[in-house]
Design a protein that fits this description.
heterodimer; A: alpha+beta; Alpha-Beta Plaits; 5 helices; 9 strands; 18% helix; 18% strand; B: mainly alpha; Formate dehydrogenase/DMSO reductase fold; two-stranded antiparallel ribbon; metal-binding (chain A); 4Fe4S_Fe_S_CS (chain A); metal ion binding (chain A); 4 iron, 4 sulfur cluster binding (chain A); 4Fe4S_Fe-S-bd (chain A)
């Protein structure tokens, strides 16, 4: 069975330390001022004594019906054999059509290459060696789960079977592979 | 830059004024070519000045527009990859071919019109001033397949003008750009709006380029019809999307630029002009052209600033 890499983010375990943000910059040599992943504070919302603030890790959602792949004029944005949305930078001309289409603002034009750039789940540098993405292994609070959602024994599959998770902006029908568990923070 | 606390949120405007001006110029090119070629094809005594103005304006506008587009790329020098890597599911990929063919045809047509102008000056010596322009057009219209180029070019001019709308409306995750015709899901709205605006601005720009002329009443009447259709379309757009898109900084651009300068004033001036000043085009046509630019800017920015 084909692999379907997925990530589960347990927001109540995230303390906003930004270790994932930094680990990603180390791993992928992302230019200054640009980010493949970031974890901004959401809130504070509510009124005392019910004030809440949480951190939401945001990156490419690895959609299975990705708007960026659909609009890309050169097929630079594509699904690889493991179903991940990746960018072939040799084909990319930097037209930014994918950036207008991505509802998650996950993409940017890399300052150094002039091509579209985004999270790859560390496909080339880690996944192909059997390792998990840099953000997942570095996560201090253990908020990030990663694995093959098609394998019922995997951590992500077991978690999603027993917890209520959501995808962001479900109204666009993009079928993301990054799932959020907002229990305890919303 | 504070990515944690939200102060450094990314600029939501991904396609800025370069793209807005490119969409505007593509519309001008399409509209100008249609004005010239349809005059050439269907008016027996087609006004040579109008044909010449539109035929020369179209390639200039589309080439300048493409220049802006290439300049806006992350890697401008790699633009040629758009031709060799094709994605038939991508509107932009299809548009690359429509616009490329249109550019070639518009250059060819401009060349054919230009050579007939030279023929015209020879005719002038022999036949005399009065008949020169019409004679030249007729002579060239029948030789050299100029009619075929005019016809094919007109099809691709329609395609180019409509494509600029489809480019934006195909972004299904953009609520404003992907607005549908009211009541008809599946039929996007922007291609219609941009086509009518392209015809209107292209015709206006062509008349500006034609300068002093014989009776332009026909063109002015067509322009009035186009402006009225565009007013209806803008009203439909206003009624069918959320009010937020017409708010903030964009309110002035919409009400002043698109509605007043681009539609209401030129309509009033044209109605007045048709009855009083048959050959006065400058005031009304300039306003139409400025309004067309305002419309592209408004649509490009509104779709990105408000989501």
């Amino acid at each position: 069975m084909a692999k379907h890499y997925a990530m589960v983010i347990q927001l109540k375990k995230c303390l906003g330390c930004q270790a994932c943000t930094v680990a990603c910059k180390f791993e992928n040599k992302v230019p200054d001022g640009q980010y493949r992943t970031k974890s901004p504070a959401i809130g504070p919302s509510g009124t005392y004594p019910n004030v809440k603030v949480f951190f939401e890790k945001q990156a490419c959602q690895m959609c299975q019906d990705a708007p960026c792949v659909k609009v890309c004029p050169t097929t630079a944005s594509h699904y690889n054999k493991d179903g991940l949305v990746l960018i072939d930078s040799h084909k990319c001309v930097g037209c930014k059509y994918c950036m207008t289409a991505c509802p998650y603002d996950a993409r940017f034009i890399n300052k150094n290459t002039g091509t579209a750039d985004k999270c790859t789940f560390c496909y080339d540098t880690r996944l192909t060696k059997g390792e998990k993405p840099a953000c997942v292994t570095t996560c201090v609070g253990g908020a990030l789960l990663f694995g093959d959602a098609n394998d019922p024994q995997s951590e992500v599959a077991r978690y999603m079977a027993t917890h209520r998770t959501e995808v962001r902006k479900a109204q666009f029908g993009t079928r993301p592979s990054v799932h959020y568990d907002y229990e305890g923070v919303k | 830059m504070d990515i944690t606390w939200g102060a450094g949120a990314a600029n939501p405007v991904i396609w800025g004024w370069l793209i807005a001006v490119y969409l505007f110029l593509a519309g001008i090119a399409g509209g100008a070519f249609l004005t010239a070629s349809l005059t050439d094809l269907f008016k027996k005594n087609g006004q040579a000045r109008v044909i010449r103005s539109g035929a020369f304006l179209a390639p200039v506008a589309i080439i300048v527009g493409l220049g802006l587009l290439v300049f806006d790329l992350g890697r401008p020098l790699s633009f040629w990859k758009l031709i060799f890597n094709v994605n038939f599911g991508s509107v932009m990929s299809i548009g690359v071919f429509i616009i490329s063919i249109f550019t070639v045809l518009s250059l060819l047509y401009a060349y054919l019109v230009w050579t007939s102008v030279k023929v015209g000056s020879k005719v002038q010596v022999r036949v005399g001033r009065a008949a020169n322009e019409t004679a030249a057009t007729k002579a060239a219209g029948t030789v050299g397949g100029r009619g075929i180029v005019a016809f094919l070019g007109a099809l691709f001019a329609l395609g180019t003008a409509t494509y600029t709308g489809f480019l934006l409306s195909a972004v299904s995750t953009n609520v404003f750009w992907s607005t549908h015709l009211p009541g008809i899901a599946g039929v996007p709205f922007l291609p219609f709006l941009f086509l009518v605006s392209a015809l209107s601005t292209g015709l206006a720009a062509t008349l500006l380029g034609a300068g002093t002329c014989d009776d332009l009443t026909v063109y002015k009447k067509i322009d009035i019809v186009l402006i009225v259709i565009e007013i209806l379309l803008v009203a439909v757009l206003y009624a069918s999307v959320r009010a937020v898109f017409f708010s903030g900084n964009l309110a002035a651009l919409f009400w002043l630029g698109v509605v007043m300068i681009g539609l209401i004033l030129p309509l009033l001036l044209s109605l007045y002009g048709v009855s009083r000043h048959k050959n006065l085009v400058l005031p009304s046509c300039s306003l139409v052209v400025i309004g067309g630019l305002a419309l592209r800017c408004f649509v490009v920015y509104a779709g990105q600033l408000f989501k």
